Amino acid sequence: MHKYICSFIFLLIITSLNAQRYSATLSNYEAYKAFRGKPLSDKFSNIESVKIVYDLKKQKMYYFDSTLIPLHYDFVTNYLSYSQDLEIFNNENYSDTDKNRNYLLGNLNHIKGTDKWVFELAASDHMPIALIERFYNLIVQSTFIGSNLKFYLNNPEKMEWFQQNKFKIPCVKSDFIFNEITYQEVVSGTNIGILKQYKLKDLESTKPNSDEIIIVDGTPDILPNVRGIIVNELQTPLSHLVLLGKNRKIPIMAYTNALKDNNLKRLLGRKVELKIEIDTFYVKETNKKIVQKANTKKKKLIIDTTVTSIVDLSKIPKNGINYIGSKAQNLAYLIAISKDVQFKTPENAHAIPFYFYVKHVQSKSISPLINELLANTRKDSAVWVKQQLKKIRDAIKKEPINPQLIAKLNETFKNASFKNFRFRSSTNAEDLDDFNGAGLYDSKTGIVGDSTKTFEKAIKQVWASVWNEGSYGERELFGIDQRNIAMGVLVHRSFPDELANGVIITKNIFRKNFPGITVNIQKGENSVVKPEKGEVCEQFVAYHFNMGTDDDDFDVDYTSNSNLNNNEPLLSRKEMSRLFLVSQKIEAKMYRYWRKNRYHPVDIEFKIVGENRDLYIKQVRPFNE
Description:
The chain is α+β, with helices and mostly antiparallel strands. It contains 17 helices and 25 strands. The strands form 4 sheets. A 7-stranded mixed beta sheet has the order 1-3-2-4-5-6-7, sandwiched between helices. A 7-stranded mixed beta sheet has the order 8-12-11-10-9-13-14. Strands 23-22-21-20-24-25 form a 6-stranded antiparallel beta sheet. Strand 4 and strand 5 form a beta hairpin. The longest helix has 22 residues, at about 575-595.
């Protein structure tokens, strides 16, 4: 008898524990809250989620605690006695048929602070429409949500079905979620500082103190040297603000209500602690000490001025980083890689070496101005520094260029098929492992035979950008010796006919330890890294779920669609797959060129060009996390 009593008590305990972990229904929001957790992906910062399993054979629904049980596979093995391995589970339960399926797997997502509810499948789940609709209706019947529930179209396959009017359930795209975002982690972290508020136009003449955490009514082109930044407009994950912020390693966030938040208004002028996490933040008054950064030891840069000819990048220059800069050297690597991998690189690619820049700024009209700036006499005056930098830029643009350089360029491009050429910065202080320099320097267009957009004018404008406020200030912050800066110029044909442009990071930046690449792309020439106010680019993570290489194995998970393209995909499924395969091969080959021994994702810039929608890769550099 004692044995049976113990067994009965044990059964009650197990049943009770299981009841806390899952339920067949959700009768109200309180029931939902008991099981809610964070989604596996951080692509949205305003989502709470409960995982769902529907057992097809037993015809039973399970809503379960996604914090305690993060994976559907964990639930079915631990609670539903599933005994197959993960690979078989994935192949059978994410397939495009109901044959061999044991379960329907999904997520019930709630957009925080709203009455919006979203039913979502994994982007890699190719569940047939009939099963999707059955699953949707089962959720409606077993929860309190009712007609507020929408089905989220998170991959190209589902969007195509929607365009073909195949769904009989209410469907939404990413803008349904994205438009509700008010908070966005840009760079996570914690810091102490004095909370101050500035207008963008104030920053043109005012230099915030280095002990401040600042609130700004927009996205600054130049990041001030401060302890934290709060902007009131959302960012693309790969914008210059994001990349420079990650390089700086200071907490940065976007908060659309920043200028209206009464708590922030109350704390202005006070010492606060700012803490930024993926799905939340807090700002509170503190007595903690503001710890000043130690002065960074000056970093010397290499300048090789022995190369005095235009460098043809169709052949990899030896130690070219020392005389044409990282950007030009990396393009030479890309040109070599493109011979074995299916993509194009900008035609007529050449580099103007450091020699010509150094000789130009050694002139009597420029050199004394640079020496006066670097003598450090009035460096603490933001106004004086700004004025002196402008004087240097103006002098660089006014000083006549070496005529031999223009003659060499004209000779180099006399038989080129293109008339428009892009002149791009390639300094010895950008695209490095510890200093990416995103957006610090300028690119300009020169046109053969044009009296206004001349080669000379374009080159001098690029050279002058060495002394932009942003580039100068960023080098100061990182302890780079300003006397050792040199500008090479990367030259190649320009792209007036681009259909789309974008950035790839060869890493899934939204989900740890999960494969994939992260892509931001925008229509035409509209910038991904410096978008105009109100523009939303297309963002997605792409991966081969089963590690195959066929298009059928390829999956895409959208974060947003371009509002310049009616929220429709900018790329075909085949183009997305190609991006994935090409970027992985570039990453692997760049490791060998850079002689890296450990995994390091890369940052790739690309374009889709012309009637044939050719894929051009125009830049690669290390991705600094």
